[in-house]
Amino acid sequence: MNYQNWHGLTDGRFGYGSMLLGFLDNKPKDVVIDPRSDVDVLMSVPFASEGWLKGQYRACFTMWETDVLPMKFRRWLAQYDEIIVPCEHNISVFAEHHPKVNYIPLGVDTDWWKPYNREPNQKFRFHAAGSLWKRKGLDAVVQAFKNLNLPDAELHIKAAPHASDVPAGVESDTIFLHRQWMDAETQRDWFNQADCFVAPARGEGFGLIPLQAIALGVPTIISKTSGQEQFSHLAMSVVSSKKQNCPMGGKWDEPNLEHLMQLMKFHYHHRSNLMAESKLRALAAKEFSWKKAARKLADHLPKGKLIENGEFEKPNPLFDMEVKHECVCEINGKRWEFVPGKVYKVPENVHEVMFAGAAIKD
After folding, report:
1. Pairing state of beta strands 31-33 and 241-245?
2. Is 259 within 8 Å of 276 (Cβ atoms)?
3. For residue 187, which of 182, 238, 264, 346 is within the disulfide window of CB 3.0 to 4.6 Å?
4. Is the pLDDT of residue 34 over 90?
5. What is the model's pLDDT at position 29?
6. How far apart are CA 330 and CA 355, in angstroms?
7. Domains of the chain: which residue ranges?
8. Dihedral sign of CA atoms 31, 33, 38, 39 in order
9. Superfamily designation of domain 124-287
10. Complete DSSP assignment for 279-338
11. Phi then psi for 159, rounded to 5 degrees?
12. Residue 177 has what pLDDT?
């Protein structure tokens, strides 16, 4: 028997939660999930781990959306024996900071996300979705739609209730925001009602939302960015983009607005033909089924066995730090003394206090 511990966020409404549930719901029959396994896979950001059993093989299945990892990611990577990422773009991003990085794609439940009949729309419906307005390129979708001013067309955007970057005043007589949580069937029906799904993301770890639309047989426009590049050959249209500085650090892909407008207009004028072709392309989404992804993950990892009476170890990330001036301080009951000109390896909480006090040398 192959014992594994695949764990992380279990709320499927969020990206990492959806990812974990996709793997757990489709794990091979020879895999048994048990926290005592000597193979531990955290599916989350690297700094989310609370610790491991002594002797566990430690893997972190994670992702990032630009070409430069944030400092907090980099400082935690050494806690893991292996980093697993869902797109080939992320291999080079993480390999700069860890010696063992491997790629396992995510998937879509093609028994659920598949073409089915719907009532035709009286007006042409563009759909877009995402929890982050800027990174998902939703601002570009809105601007393109407004510029086109197409008769008998609507734009529907599914934005998560917790999203804090949704701009005010977006809604109008032709632009509709859907900010409520949807159950699985309602969400699938909402996706299926689109005449064209638009996903010009600037950066993606993978891009489950447009892949689900493609699997439904909905004509889909995507940007060939980071994670979405894995399945861009399945999309009906690909908008061009160019590298641009990202507020999160590094660069991501800025969609070309004029090209996006051309593609949206083309879909608007060729609804019937594109819908028929998309239904045929939907079959190819099985290339990225969750069953295949879970099998790949299980085959890639070491075969696990149980650890009896294992000792729990907390993470211990140490950060390099050099101070600007002599410092003597007490942090969490421990006394620390630092002098300039020397590099210290300190725990994260100490680094955070010193950083907040502007005592660290750049």
Report:
1. unpaired
2. no
3. 182
4. yes
5. 96
6. 15
7. 2-107+293-312, 124-287, 318-356
8. positive
9. Glycogen Phosphorylase B; (3.40.50.2000)
10. HHHGGGGGGGBHHHHHHHHHHHSPPP-BPTTPPEE----EEEE-BSS-EEEEETTEEEEE
11. -115, 130
12. 95
